[in-house]
Amino acid sequence: MTDAVQPLFIKVHEADNVAIIVNDGGLAAGATLPGGVVLRESIPQGHKVALADLAHGDPVIRYNVTIGYAARALPRGSWVHERVTTLPTARSLDDLPMATRAAPPMPPLQGYTFMGYRNADGSVGTRNILAITTTVQCVQGVVEHAVRRIKDELLPRFPNVDDVVGLEHTYGCGVAIDAPGAAVPIRTLRNISRNPNFGGTAMMVSLGCEKLQPQRLMPPGTLPIAPDADAGAAIDTICLQDEEHIGFDAMIRSIMQTAEKHLAILDRRRREPCPVSDLVVGVQCGGSDAFSGLTANPAVGYAADLIVRAGGTVMFSENTEVRDGIDQLTARAATPEVAQALVREMAWYDRYLSLGMADRSANTSPGNKKGGLSNIVEKAMGSIVKSGSAPISAVLSPGEKLSGKGLVFCATPASDFICGTLQLAAGMNLHVFTTGRGTPYGLAQVPVIKVATRSDLARRWNDLMDIDAGRIATGAASIEEVGWELFRLMLDVASGKKQSCAEKLKLHNALALFNPGPVT
Asked: CA dist 224 to 232, 262, 456, 499, 503, Å?
């Protein structure tokens, strides 16, 4: 359906020569935009219209950035999409501005707290969860069975424990365990086990013959970090191949007996007032469209600035979705060393892609293009804005654990599932996920708040989306208003006062480890 009454469009910057069609269902040929541009053809919602005549080879400018070049003449009013544009060359990683953009200091934000679970290591959980770590995929079926039994038979006796999750994956054997790339999945698994939402009481299940042996995954002293536990002790481990396990039932009994002990420890925990500086928020986008950079991501960026102003931590990620804005990021780095770390991660990922004979253009999906994103450059410009405006204080390599506060770049692939897994390892205790095309994405380990870029999606998926940022496109709400709405919702969800839609519905994507090493 088209809206013939009031054609709506958004032009981001005065220098742009394209604009985005806002109307639900798009606009038909002949529609006249405010300012006099007449559409030469029907243009779907979220797609670009040429505001000026473009000759073959002319730059297509959005966000005051050249996002592509006209592959043929595009008269004023033409539909501008991926089939009539070409991709710009990637920005070189040489001669970048390094920590040159000194952002004006943001005023501190005080007086806001949430109710969290304080851990002995200083971290704070937003949920109180028993995690069962696994060393190898071979034990997954046993752990799944044990988790069902624990939830049915044990969890009701421990009302202060929110959930039991198995940290299952497809790694641990059949891999080159000593290859340099193996460090990434191993430290990812180790650091996920140390996530603040697990309270330092994770337990482990191994098979016995796997390459990733328990002591390598979780050396003594890694856990536990519970207040009443020995800080140098080894993690409680059940090895299925131990001779004491005579049959399947014996394995399940061992897991359940250990779980009961850990549940008792977790059940003694209580929420207490915590400053916003204890929040670690991971932000990510998936199923992106042309509205992502106009509505949801700017609102998330505004909320991210509020978290940083309050002393908290925000992590943004997705290497290929920031690669084409690397000059923006290095300029925003707090120090030259942080800027150089950004370059290091981008260069590493460039090499990784080249080994697979791929490049950054492989990122955009059919759904991205259907939603109006012509290429990765346009997508990158919209992705970066969810990081807000604060200086970038630190950079994490894949699988590393956070050690500071502020705005942090957590280097990850753009895959929703791998990115979320790596942000879990970094220590996030709350996740914010924006989407334009729609996705039921969720995590069992932390609450996931979903922000819709379009009001149509928010209406159709009303029980899957937590916030409608599409109101920004129509003028019904401002970026600032939606940013504050998200900030307040984050505090309520972190406190357990509210559940996000994904949490209510128990929509849990599997952990997906990033393994750049060889498989044998």
From this structure: 8, 10, 47, 28, 27
Counts for the chain of helices (H) and strands (E), in that order? 14, 21
In the block, which residue shows the tokens 């069975």?
145
Name the CA dihedral angle for 302, 306, 312, 317, rounded to a multiple of 10 degrees.
0
Reading the block at residue 220, the tokens are 């003594």
Could you report how far apart the first and last alpha carbons of the chain are, in Å? 53
The residue behind tokens 């604060």 is 390
Whole-angstrom distance, CA of residue 325 vs CA of residue 323: 5
394 beta partners: 408
CB 15 within 8 A of CB 64: yes
Give, as one character, the DSSP assignment of residue 74: B
φ and ψ at 143, to 5 degrees? -65, -40
* Calpha distance 372→81 (Å, rounded): 7
Laid out side by side, the sheet with 129-134 consists of: 163-167, 129-134, 203-206, 237-239
CA gap 446, 224 in Å, rounded: 20
Q: Are the C-beta atoms of 307 and 276 separated by less than 8 Å?
A: yes
Residue 232 binned pLDDT confidence (cut-offs 50, 70, 90):
low
Q: Are 303 and 486 in contact (CB under 8 A)?
A: yes
Q: Please give the distance of CA 320 from its chain centroid, rounded to a whole number.
A: 13
Beta bridge partner(s), residue 116: 272
Distance of alpha carbon 84 from the chain centroid = 31
CA distance 362 to 353: 9
What are the pLDDT digits (tens) for 380-407?
Answer: 999 999 999 999 999 999 999 999 999 9
Residue 130 has pLDDT above 50, yes or no: yes
Res. 231: pLDDT tops 60: no
Task: Give the integer Cα–Cα distance in Å for 328 and 99.
Answer: 10
- Rounded CA-CA distance 428/282 in Å is 6
For the sheet containing 467-468, what is the strand order? 392-396, 406-410, 313-316, 280-285, 430-435, 448-452, 467-468
Helix ranges (H only) for 208-247 are 214-217
